Structure formats: C-alpha cells, structure tokens
Amino acid sequence: MKKITQKGVYLLLLLSSMLGNSQESPDTSKSLIKARLQLVKGSKDYNPEKAIASYTELASQGNPVAMNALGLIYTKGTGISVNEQEGIKWLEKAAQAGYAKAWYNLGIVYQEGISVPANPLKTIQYFEKAATAGYGSAYTAWGRMLMKGNGVPQDYPLAMSIFKQGAEKGNSHCSYLQGYLYYKGFGCTQDYSIAIQHFEIAIQKNNPWAMYMLGLCYRNGYGVDINLEKAKNYLSRSAAMGVKPSQMELDDPEAENHSPNQTKTISAPIGEVITINETEAPETFKKVKQVPITTDISGNYTGYALRYDFSGQNILSKTLLQIDLNQDGKALNGEWKEIDGDTVTFKAHIQEDAIVFKDSKIDRTEHFYKGNLNRYEFKNATLQLLQTDESLFIVGNLQFYNIKERENEKPMYLILEKKQTRTSEVQQVISSVAIYPNPVVTDFSLSFDLAKPADVGVSIYYITGRELYTQQWKNLEQGTQTRTLSLNAPAGYYVLRLTYGTEVKTTILIKK
C-alpha cells in the first residue's frame, strides 16, 4: 500500500471531526464516511472523483457536512485543482446552514490567503462566529490572533476574555493560554499562583503544553516549592506527547532560575521607583520612572544588564556591557557591545517619559534558545541619571521585544557608568553637605557650600525611593548655606538629595 500523504491525513482529520458533530440518518452517515475514505490518497478506497460526486449530491440535498467537505476539497485542491472561490462558496453555505466549523474553516482560508488575499479582520470575524456558534476550538485561534497581534492590534485583555470563554466551554488549550498570560503578566497582573491554577485545569484534560509550563514552575520554584521530581514527571509526560521544548528542558542540566533567591517564588506587585539613590544591582526588579534628561549623556559607558524572571523576584543572568552614546538634541544613537556576545548599533529618540528605540535589533541566546540565536528588538527604556564626584551613572529599565514570539521579553535592569575627570574641586558647585543633629527628632539643620550663585533643589525620600518632601531654592548666593527643615515621618532611614543640574549630593537621614 502506498504511504498516505500528509495532506490526505490533514483532510481526513478535518472531515472525520465533522462527522462526530452531525446528526445524520444511517444511510447519510455511511455515505459521508465512504466519501471521506475515498479522499485518502494511498488507501485502497482512494477515488476523489466519486467522493466529490457523493458530497455534491448530499450538498444539493442541503447537508451542511457535505457542503463543508466540498469547501475543504476545493480550497485544498484534493483530487482536483485548487479553486478557493468555489471552496469559499460551499463553506459559506455550510456555515449559513448552521455548521459552526465551516465558519472556522473560512477563517483559515482568509488567514492563509493563498489565491484570495489574506484578510486578518475577516479571519477574526469568522473565528468569532465559529466560536459563538458552538465550535469550541475556534476560541483558541481567535484569542491567539489577538494575543500575538497577527495582522491586528495586539490586545491581551481581549485575548484573555476570549480564552476565559473558551475555557468555560471546556477548551483545555484556552485554560493553558490563560495560565500563559498570567505566568508572563501580559494584559493582567503577573501571578504564578493563578497561572498554575489554569495549568492544572488544562492538565486534567491532558493538555501537553500546560504540563510543560507546570514542569517549568516546579523546576524553577515559580509559584510552588522547587520539586525536581514533579518537574521531571510533567516535562516527561509533555515530551512524550510531542512538545519539543519539554525534551529540551529535560536535556538541559541547568534550570532557567539556577540561583533562586528562594525555593518558592511568590509573585508580588512591583511599585514604581520615583528616584534612584544607588548604583548597586537590586536583588529584585525595580520599575523605574524616567526623569527628564536635560543634559548631554554622550560618552563611553561600561556596566551590565540584569535579566529577571517574569515576577522580578530572581536574577536570571548578568550581561557585561560596553556602550557608546552619541546625543544630538533629542536624537540618541550608539553602539551596544555585550562582552561575551553581539555588538550592534542602535538609534532612539529621547522623550519626557521614556527613550524609544527605532529599527534597532540584536541577536542573543538565553536559556530557552541554547545553541541558537534569537532576534530581539530594542523597544524602550526608562532611565535616571545619578551623578557622583567621579562618575555619571545611567540606571533604569530596558525592554526587549521577542520578534519570534511577538511579545515582550523578561524585565531588565541597566546600570551604566561613565568615568569623569574633574580638573579642580571648584567644578563642584555643591560641597561640604552636613546635617545636624543626625539622628533627628523633628527639626534639623542642613548646611552646604556653593561655589557660585545657583538654584538648588532638596528632596527627601523613603529608603524605597518614594518621595516624601521636595523644595526648590532659587538664586542662592555663593558661600555657606544653612536651612532648617522638619522631618515629620516614622522612625527609620531616609535619603536626602541636593541637586544642581545633573550634580547630585546624597546623604542619609536617621529619624528617631
């Protein structure tokens, strides 16, 4: 016997799935089954001419299953030449006759766009009609188009809503995709625990991708205690069902979260840091609010980029960097060099609330792409400048976009340093900063010297970076300045900052 072709198997599956949903007389069902087998190239029953004749006769009697079959035959060119217009005509008739899956098949035709132009909007409309008419698998295709932004604007909240509807109708892949969005925090608050709940629901229906994701959770301690035995069990079951990433994970001796901060990572809200006061690597991710960049940041910088898991609770990698920046007004371009990786050029535009990159890409490898390079786009950055006596630091967040997966990469935190040489101490406008008494009860005196007349700002922050107090002193004279301030706040440590342009002086306040 000849080998059955892939196209024949594909069509066989499409047609056989239709028969299980139809309410036919025994004679009609027998005719449909026989016609279906006659389309399988390489089988003893193969006879596409007779199959088409049978379907045409049944379709003329108003049978929607036969109409749908003719639509597939003409659009796929099974036993005849491809004729998508004829196929579309029959699929539309089947759909209008109440056969829900015909709407889905119409969506596939307009998604692939072979002889008819691809039309993502029509595809979504047909997937939606198929889902609401009762074809549950269409929820997956409908939601994924919006999740990935395939030809339509990316809309995570709407995709989540669609997956929820599909899951409620028993679609296990929709349950998995709900978990996927919660795992990564796309269109929702990132939460490993909720993600796991959805994975477990999908696994009850033997969904292999949910097994893969739950295996990752147990291996890395995401939302559950690290349990390598359970991780291996779920990954092995998934791999046996054909999920290649599961086998890759089993073959990799090192987990993504190879140096966890804890055995169980609990997702927690990440607040926005208004002011950065330190240049050390934070153990957990900090979301940085950009401060308007009012000075030229051109120069040669060294530093590193930290990658965190999606919850921001664990550092996954540290990449050493050399970066050359050239600023021209609001335009920024430069060279990004990873010490053990790629070197690329980039260009961006400085805005008030972010730095937005344009046509800037990089090839990188990471845990899930070991042995291969994956391409990412520089998307945006939110940065702050921190001036010390010897260096200018650029600190903040960088967002990469995974082009293959059509989604944002994990959180990243940048720390870059440009060494500066001062010709003399007089270049420092602010000096000799002192607080007394310290610790303070309520009122305290702040003194500092000015090398020239200047406008000086003072701010007090909680140790977390949230601003407590700020004031601007205009037209201060050269010489020693003394001001009395009050600290009406709970006992603890606070950060006081004096600023003149990009020059910043920082000291610690202790409240009794």
TrEMBL record:
Coiled coil: none annotated. InterPro entries: Mitotic_Regulator, Secre_tail, Sel1-like, TPR-like_helical_dom_sf. Residues 1-22 form the signal peptide. Keywords: Signal. This is Uncharacterized protein. It comes from the Bacteria.
